[in-house]
Amino acid sequence: MTIEIDLAERRRSREETRVDPANSRSWLLLSALRDDAFDAAQLSRADQVILDCEDAVDDSRKDEARAKVLDWFAQGGRAWVRINERGSQAWADDVRALRDTDGLLGVMLAKTESPDQVVDTAQRLGGSVPVIPLVESALGIEDAVSIARAPGAFRLAFGSGDYRRDTGTANESLAMAYPRSRLVTASRIGGLPGPIDGPTVGTSHALLREQSADGVALGLTGKLCLDLETPAVINESFSPSSADVAWALDFLADFEASGSVIRDGSDKPRLARARKISERAALFHVNPS
Questions:
Q1: 3-state SS assignment for residue 208
Q2: What's the pTM?
Q3: Contact 94, 81 (CB under 8 A)
Q4: pLDDT computed for residue 57 by the predictor
Q5: Beta strands 157-158 and 131-135: pairing type?
Q6: What domains lie within the chain, and their CATH numbers?
Q7: What pLDDT was estimated at residue 17?
Q8: What is the pLDDT of residue 139?
Q9: Is 275 marked as binding a ligand?
Q10: Which of 70, 82, 205, 263 has its C-alpha lying 20 to 30 A from 199's C-alpha?
Q11: Nearest CA to 29 among 107, 94, 95?
């Protein structure tokens, strides 16, 4: 009983400090079969946790994985769930089981290629559950604007591994710039928060920082990850640096001291950037250097 009370208190404390999904940086993707790690994931540094009922689960074990998720939710767990692609029997089973389930924060829809798939998923879940379309193919990338505008779409995510498999694209920053930029542009047009980048394959923190920096430069604002060791690195990479915060605060102070009057053509874009950095610094508790 003491252990259960302690876990409940730790969960409550973690939820009180969790970054909201619209601004979340690190999205930890964990196999729905690994119920022994669900609590550790929820209490980790990850801004959000996604229990994966799709690619991480063999077809023969879908029912088992879904049952583990529902059982954990019944015990007070809270997370997102990656559900199977629209049109599959597993998708139908997923949305039927998850509808009106306490603990479900939202779903990530695998292999999204059209807005109809998003709308259908949102409706089958009751109309109020946020849906993150995971765009993983050439067709999905090209229809990203329509997907972003679909009712129920909450934030786009990039399935970079399947995209490379679909297109033969190399896992290099230049080769992956186009699909990432498409998702950034589509999110802006659709009025969504910045998209979530695909995971970095491997355990090298140097590579993770490099690929995170590529995403930040292109306008992505979050990243999927596959283990408990990487959320802290992602959170740092997708937060403004102390030096950027110092510049933003200095610029805003100088602008206010000048009477908040636009002085030349560079002021408006710099003002917008300074305000954005200041907002994110406050959200992520980043102090100026």
A1: helix
A2: 0.93
A3: yes
A4: 97
A5: parallel
A6: 2-237 (3.20.20.60), 242-284 (no CATH)
A7: 87
A8: 98
A9: no
A10: 70
A11: 107
Task: Classify burial at 76, counting beta carbons within 10 Å of its beta carbon; exposed 0-12, middle 13-18, buried 19 or more.
Answer: middle
Q: What is the DSSP string of 153-166?
A: B---EE-HHHHHHH
Q: Is 15 marked as binding a ligand?
A: no
The neighbour count for residue 269, using CB atoms within 10 Å, is 9
* pLDDT at residue 153, rounded to an integer: 98
Q: What angle do CA 196, 162, 195 make, to 5 degrees?
A: 10
Q: At what angle do helices 242-257 and 267-284 cross, to 10 degrees?
A: 130
Contacts within 8 Å (CB) and 24+ apart, 262-271: none
Q: Which segments of the chain are extended strands (E)?
A: 26-31, 48-52, 79-83, 104-109, 131-135, 157-158, 196-197, 222-225
Residue 4's pLDDT is: 64
Distance, CA of 269 to CA of 271 (rounded, Å): 5
CA angle 135, 15, 125 (to 5 degrees): 45
Confirm if 153 and 192 have CB atoms less than 8 A apart: yes
The token duo for 21 is 């999904």
Residues 6+ apart with CB under 8 A from 95: 83, 121, 124, 125
Gap between the Cα atoms of 135 and 148, Å rounded? 10
82 assigned to a ligand binding site: yes
Residue type, 39: D
